[in-house]
Write a structure and sequence with these properties.
The protein is an alpha/beta fold and about 750 residues long. The protein is built from 25 helices and 10 strands.
Length: about 750
Amino acid sequence: MTERTVRQPIKFGTFIGVFTPSVLTILGVMMYLRFGWVLGNLGLPLTLLTVVLASSITFITGLSASAISTNMKVGVGGEYYMISRSLGIQLGGAIGIPLFLCRTFSLTLYAFGLAESIAPFWPLEWGVPPVQLMAAMIILFATMVAGKSANLSLKLQIPIMAAVGLSMIALFYGVLTGGFHTPEMHANYHRSAPEGFWFVFAVFFPAVTGFTAGIGMSGDLKDPRKSIPKGTILAVITGTITYLLILTALSVTSKVDGSMLAQIDPSAPPVWSKIALFGMVLVYPGLWGAILSSAFGSILGGPRVLQALSLDKIAPKALGRTSKTGQPTFATWVTGGIALVAVALGDLNTVGRWVTIFFLTLYIAINLSAVIERLVGDVSYRPTIRVHWIISLIGCIGAGIVMFLINPFACVIAISLEVILYWYLKRKALKSSWGDVRAGMWSSIARFALIKLKEKNTQARNWRPNIILFSSNPTRLMSLTRVANWFNQKKGIVTVCRTFVGDISNPNVDTKAVQLQMEQELIKQKITAFPEVNIVPDFETGIISIIQANGLAGMQSNTVMFGWTNGIDRIQRLMRIVRIVSDMKRNSILANIPETDSSPSHKCIDVWWRGMQKNGDLMLLLAHLLNLNTEWRQAKIRLRTIVFSEKEKNLMNDKLKTLIAESRISAETGVILNRNNENVIELMHKSSKDADIVFIGLALPELGNEIEFAKNLDQLVIGFKSTILVRNAELSEGELIR
């Protein structure tokens, strides 16, 4: 391609790209048209407090934005880019869309301001000045200029800055050459602000929001990391000092009084013209230039937020397209169109309040990003400007309080909109190609929780199953995992292990592929578990090593679960592992579960209680946890046991009823009298033939009796629909169900 067809977008430095648009947006419409109104209603002390309070919030937010911007290469989108790369794409999008509306409504705000300032020149014979129509024409003009060239828009700001400076010199000259009077020291809301202080504050606040205009140009800067903090902080300081001087000057000049300052008359010249040298001659060029510059800042920043949203696939793709000069032309016209619609909102004060609310939500997000980044302390967070997290937190809380005090209804609407947007974007399952602070935040929370767990010994009252599950049959793995999750009740941790025997240096299986397949299947089945794939040189010793290494601090696995296996040799091997697991003081569960369960609901859970070992309480607790799940909620728990005499039956029945009452678990008793000395296994099968699942305590075989034990156990297990063998090796009898 030739140089004629490809033109590199123009990049800007700190002064032109950040400071100038920011300071001219700050020294804009509110300064000329509403400072007198604010002062006339509040009096000097409350007015200065308003400036300090509003500027403090913006100054802290500017510091937070500077800290974040010096830690990353800021791309197009300004504040949205920083928030999305810090808090994640969903939260970024939830803030980015209101940010775009902020910029768009600001354009409407400045257009109203310029229209009001032109209204005094409207010929009387033409009737009432059409302020809304003039505002619409101003929006169209600013959109056309910005759509053509950002360079032209920014370069126009140099002569505008000169005009603004000249108008302020004229104002101060007029004050110093006129008489003085004592400033009003108390509020006079009856003049034109009966709604009170926070109403006036809401109208004033957009005057300090202009500091973000330069941040919005982030994608067009030569060095955003350097220019954003320098230009932004300097603009905030310059604006604050200028505001304090102007308001003090207006309060002491004898050329106007409080009543004159508080008047709002769109058909009359602004109050500055009554004070400044040469009257309107030097004031109006600065006024028009400042307002037009602010409008340019909004129409340049808004489309770039829309462009960034498009690049992140939150907004339509067409909005991310740029012209040969790098200007997002289509997004610019969309912004201008929405600003035109916003003209219907009414007047300057109405638009100003909504702009205030949306900007405050943005400030909360920026400060919150800085707080979280600082507290999480990811190694990647190394800003060259360091701000203590308490300062950013003060800015966050301050913005939130002010937002609520200004307009509780609008505050709720704005927050609700962002919550809805976050929920929508989360439902879209957007994935970012960058890391954000959330992973570090959860890591820090997890670390804190693990340290606290380590400090406290887990007692029976706090016990919950953290299960590590092994299965050699991949087709039954999901069924077993579902059962483990039923026991878990989303309160503990389930780790699902596939184990392969082989050489780890020369594996015979692709472990990453197997783990990915397990993860996908878990997601498909909507099961929460952590998949794990291991290669071990020997099955038995490998399993024991995995169990010992599993977990951290207070979150080690306390229960080991195995799928049932076929073959006497394999059952013996399984029992050898259970013996070692018991010596490790970890519980064991052996589960014989069908691969598929077509039953929509389950009717009966049987718990076979022998009372000889301490397995009963764990079995009853697991049965109760199972019963809490939707699929098992209609099932009744039957506590069963076999006795051989009528006297023993009565005693056992009373004992089981007492146990159920003390455990506070809903269950029925079922004491079976074996009068004819039937085979116990056959009697159990017959008694539980209608049970959907059966819990049985697991004893360990006596040494030398392993084969016979394995045969009897196999015969017992396969006679039920589903069987759960339980061995409690952790806590003493009765403690879990007290």
